């Protein structure tokens, strides 16, 4: 049986468009990939980025819950240091009430933004700088109602309350740290190969996770999902062109001039210096791009090399038709291989 494929959405706002249109595109996308047979639709958390509409994944997922019926919905992930653990527990239990039995709670310890914005987020929320492990323990206590002896908030109920409302936990990792945390908790591990495309490091993190895994009610066995940037098109040349905006977006991020997600034409017309071209090309190299057969082969190699149980794919394009087509071509090739 083929490994399941899932979708990671950053909700790009194409140049010439706006956030309301991007959100409607996201809702159409989740319906599209549900019909194609994708297992999950996860939304990333990013802040202070004009080109992305994914600052509050919970809002997007709540809307997605009302236009879907089968696909699992999750955060990819909640950047826990930006949030009060009780608020996260309440929000995702409420989402579980909207979409019973199909919610995932992915958690990360990075801010999902620059340091200044992270400080503003945490300051406004009144959050203290606490270790990720402490925040995680508090989240689980609030979510399950099982408090260690002497916990200062024992007895507080993360509402709404009810059986099976607190979703399964996944730990996001781009290094070895998250694999230890996920193994200790008996949580799923989602490795961000799309951020850190070091296959050797990814394999080592997965091996560490599997070796030290402690079974839990949600995960009686270890479960590894690996994220990849993917663009699929009818020809290699078309796919290569579709990666050009991705490179320009990351160059702009490096320069601090991030705007809306650029088009292929904008990327081709940009006056790159040699150094800028190198930055953009390095970003493009992190994208698995090509024809359906080429992409499917590279994805299978990645899954084998890392020993993954599932792949979650982020396909970023300016044109939403090309984006939906990318996911369609990938799934068709994946099922036929």
TrEMBL record:
- Entry's CDD domains? Flavin_utilizing_monoxygenases
**Gene Ontology MF annotations:** oxidoreductase activity
Keywords (A to Z) from UniProt: Oxidoreductase
Q: What is its EC number?
A: 1.-.-.-
Q: Which InterPro entries match?
A: Bact_Lucif_Oxidored, CmoO-like, Luciferase-like_dom, Luciferase-like_sf
The residues covered by the Luciferase-like domain are 10-303
Which family does the entry's similarity section mention? To bacterial alkanal monooxygenase alpha and beta chains.
This protein's name: LLM class flavin-dependent oxidoreductase
The source organism is Deinococcus antarcticus
């Amino acid at each position: 049986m083929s490994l399941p494929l899932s979708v990671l959405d950053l909700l790009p706002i194409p140049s010439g468009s706006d956030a309301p249109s991007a959100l409607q595109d996201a809702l159409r996308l989740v319906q599209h990939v549900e019909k194609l047979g994708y297992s999950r639709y996860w939304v990333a958390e990013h802040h202070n980025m004009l080109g992305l509409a994914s600052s509050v994944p919970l809002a997007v997922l709540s809307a997605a819950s009302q236009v879907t019926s089968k696909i699992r919905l999750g955060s990819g992930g909640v950047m826990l240091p930006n949030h009060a653990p009780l608020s996260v527990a309440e929000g995702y239990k409420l989402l579980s009430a909207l979409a019973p039995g199909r919610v995932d709670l992915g958690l990360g310890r990075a801010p999902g933004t620059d340091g200044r914005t992270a400080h503003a987020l945490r300051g406004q929320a009144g959050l203290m700088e606490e270790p990720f492990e402490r925040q995680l323990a508090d989240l689980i206590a609030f979510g399950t109602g099982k408090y260690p002896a002497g916990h200062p908030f024992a007895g507080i109920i993360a509402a709404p309350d009810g059986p099976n409302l607190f979703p399964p936990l996944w730990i996001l990792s781009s290094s070895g740290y998250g694999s230890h945390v996920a193994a200790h908790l008996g949580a799923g591990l989602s490795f961000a190969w799309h951020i850190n495309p070091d296959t050797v490091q990814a394999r080592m993190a997965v091996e560490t996770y599997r070796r030290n895994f402690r079974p839990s009610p949600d995960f009686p066995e270890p479960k590894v999902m690996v994220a990849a940037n993917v663009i699929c098109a009818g020809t290699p040349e078309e796919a290569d062109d579709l990666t050009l905006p991705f490179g320009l977006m990351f160059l702009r991020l490096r320069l601090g001039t991030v705007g809306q997600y650029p088009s292929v034409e904008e990327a081709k017309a940009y006056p790159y210096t040699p150094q800028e071209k190198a930055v953009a090309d390095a970003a493009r190299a992190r994208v698995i791009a090509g024809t359906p057969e080429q992409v499917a082969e590279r994805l299978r190699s990645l899954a084998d090399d890392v020993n993954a149980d599932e792949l979650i794919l982020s396909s970023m394009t300016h044109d939403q038709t090309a984006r939906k087509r990318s996911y369609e071509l990938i799934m068709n090739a994946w099922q036929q291989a």
